[in-house]
TrEMBL record:
Gene3D superfamilies xrefs: Jelly Rolls
UniProt-annotated binding residues for Fe cation: H78, H80, H122, E124
Keyword field: Iron, Metal-binding
Cofactor: Fe cation
Protein name in the entry: Pirin
Residues annotated as domain Pirin N-terminal: 41-141
Record PANTHER family: PIRIN, PIRIN-RELATED
Family: Belongs to the pirin family.
CDD domains associated with the record: cupin_pirin_C
Textual note on the cofactor: Binds 1 Fe cation per subunit.
GO terms assigned for molecular function: metal ion binding
Coiled coil: none
Length: 321
């Protein structure tokens, strides 16, 4: 999914200097962003004061939206570099096309994982016809320097491993949780899991104390480590946890995001993740004037123009804890 903000700002993210090395309970409120004509998203990352969680660098939550009489998601072809996109649905479908030739309909609780590597372009749209409701999350994972120029590719996994306990079904989207490992390719230690909780459930989820974590609420009423987390908000949890108490007031859907704190600092602007201001500007220029990012074939419409890069100059410098 694209960042369609026409005033996209250059942002320095990552580095371990701001990682919270102990358990915390930091509730993050979303920023509302219009995505196309009929989809509004709630942006949780990057957030004021909290830019990343492990390698997770971007989190949008959208819906549930009634799109029975609407076009639904309509995101024209746009570029990415230096990241992976993770498409995750609770309701509806999204048709993915990209410049490697991939064409795939992604359905609820199926993993759509696109690795941009050095350069890719893609589009996302609600199929015609489509389901009445659309509800999901779009996430980005920053690629570490050693892997950020890999060949672009797309993976689709409809059958994902689960961890179960009374009242809890945890679907492992990326990485590993309690011994269950996703088939999705990762390039740094991380985890993403969908947590479905039945009303009245109280349970503890095992965690890796070396990871930092956050929990996104997708639906229902739930408490995470005693903190009520409403749909469309996210609770940052810091590091140093071996388990996470969960309590469902009603049937609830959550997403657990975590990973080893990302050591490198990155420069993130629009749909690009790089390391320098110059690299970002070059990518923007090449999207507008060259074929570096390839062509998305079959999309009915024009591709997306890049906004102007602001005059601000940023330099990313890595830090080690």
């Amino acid at each position: 999914m694209s960042n369609l903000d026409r005033q996209a700002a250059l942002t320095v993210c990552g580095g371990r200097g701001f990682v919270v090395a102990e358990p915390v309970r930091e509730l993050l409120s979303p920023r509302r962003v219009q995505l196309g004509e009929s989809t509004e998203v709630r942006r949780l990352l990057p957030n004021l004061g909290r830019r990343m969680v492990g390698a997770w660098a971007f989190v949008d939550h959208y819906g549930p939206d009634d799109i029975a009489d609407e076009p639904g998601m309509q995101v024209p072809p746009h570029p990415h570099m230096g990241l992976q996109t993770v498409s995750w649905l609770h309701e509806g479908e999204v048709l993915h096309r990209d410049s490697t030739g991939s064409l795939q309909t992604i359905r609820p609780r199926e993993l759509g994982l696109m690795t941009s590597g050095r350069a890719i372009s893609h589009s996302e749209e609600s199929p015609r016809p489509h389901a009445r409701f659309l509800h999901g999350a779009q996430l980005w994972v920053a690629l570490p320097d050693a892997h950020r120029h890999v060949e672009p590719h797309f993976q689709h996994h409809a059958d994902l491993p689960q961890v179960t306990a009374p009242g809890l079904t945890a679907t492992v989207i990326l990485g590993a949780l309690d011994g269950a490992a996703s088939p999705g390719t990762t390039y740094s230690p991380l985890v993403g899991a969908d947590l479905a909780l039945a009303a009245g459930t109280e349970t503890n989820l095992p965690l890796d104390p070396d990871f930092e974590y956050a929990v996104l609420s997708m639906s229902g009423e739930a408490e995470v480590d005693g903190v009520p987390v409403l749909p469309g908000s996210m609770l940052y949890l810091g590091c140093g946890r071996t388990e996470l108490p969960l309590r469902a007031v009603s049937d609830a859907g959550l997403m657990l995001l975590g990973g080893e704190p990302f050591e490198e600092e990155i420069v993130m602007w629009w749909n690009f993740v790089g390391r320098t201001d110059e690299e970002i500007r070059k990518a923007r220029e090449e999207w507008m004037t060259s074929d570096r990012f390839g062509e998305v074939k079959g999309y009915d419409g024009a591709r997306l123009d890049a906004p102007e890069v602001p005059a601000t100059q940023l330099k990313a410098r890595g830090r080690v804890r």
